[in-house]
Amino acid sequence: MRNHPLGLSIRKVFKQYANGVQALHNVSLDIPPGMFGLLGPNGAGKSTLMRTLATLQEPDEGQLFLGDIDIVKQKEAVRQTLGYLPQEFGVYPKASAEELLDYFAVLKGITNRAVRKDTTEALLRQTNLWDKRRQKLGGFSGGMKQRFGVAVALLGNPQLLIVDEPTAGLDPAERVRFLNLLSELGESSVVILSTHIVADVAELCTSMAIIDKGQILLEARPLEAVAALKGRIWRKLTDKAALPVMDQEHRIISAKLLSGRTMVHVYSPDRPGNGFEPVNPDLEDVYFSALTGCFGPVSQQLRAEGIAL
Ligand code: ADP
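^ thats the input. predicted complex w/ adenosine-5'-diphosphate below
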């Protein structure tokens, strides 16, 4: 059942919160080593799944394995090999990057002073913070703080690195720098990037899943999912007022403002006529096709038959 000895296997996981929200509904995923994107809108259940993997909460049902480690039953073993960069994390504003990283390294069990010095130096260089190491964290920009978070998460060479919505608050230049940092991480560990930003996944991830309302809608390699939509996405520039009628006749997957007008993408295996022109699909078309149910049934069926996309 587990294809990769060092990969992550998630089997039939359910989670309902006390207020009745079903945050995860029968979630199963196989995540190989390398960069994996978990893509979904706000409220989809991403953080719930990430927190479960990070042993911060338990599922109601289901199993999660990191290699041979049972994540629910062997929390300590997971924590020893886990790096977790949560959506929000606090830093001590008066500590310098160097001091705080050294402190976290002690907590991580790196007690030998010389080893700790080498480790923290390597991480500060890797995250491009070496020149800023003596500055207080309180003065760090959002992007610098995120990169510091990665340095902390990478202490102890984790086999599983979880990064939850890392680029949400970053400006474009910081975002590029941050994604470049992630892309340099080895292919030997599992890195999960949880995000609602399609471009993050398109630029970085070799495999991905789309989640919405607690359910996995699609599990695929981005390039293969895009290829599977070829010839099925069509576009038309129209006015907002025309949308309700168009919605009755076509399967609209997205409608975006473009210079004051509305660019509509529809899903259709056949040429829809009516002035629609073919689109070279991209990952955004995959995302919106999945969210509107055009992709979901196909991929679920393929999965049930044991055929991966
Ligand atoms: P995402 O990370 O994709 O935005 P979350 O996992 O944070 O999604 O949330 C999934 C759903 O569960 C949402 O409807 C959210 O409101 C709800 N939720 C999350 N945490 C809690 C909680 N502690 N108690 C009750 N409901 C929660």
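Residues 17, 19, 21, 23, 40, 42-48 surround adenosine-5'-diphosphate (CB under 6 Å).
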